[in-house]
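Attaching the record inline, Q. Sequence:
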Amino acid sequence: MKLDSRRPDFAVQPRRQNLEDLNWVKLLQLPNPFSFDEALLLCPVSADEWLAWIPDHGEAILNIRHFCY
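Structure, as predicted:
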């Protein structure tokens, strides 16, 4: 059996992720004076903590008391 890669439905079209679906939150406390006031929640660490990425700061573990939706 030979695979025909010329078929139009052979390649999987890349899907663009809708930026609206990402979990951006507003920070109530800034980790440093130069960081953004928003963070991207990456994954939960515990019941009340999240690993987050903060522009101009990097990764941080945030308690749920440190941000709002």
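Residues 49 and 63 are 4 Å apart (CA to CA). DSSP finds no helices and five strands in the chain.

More tomorrow.
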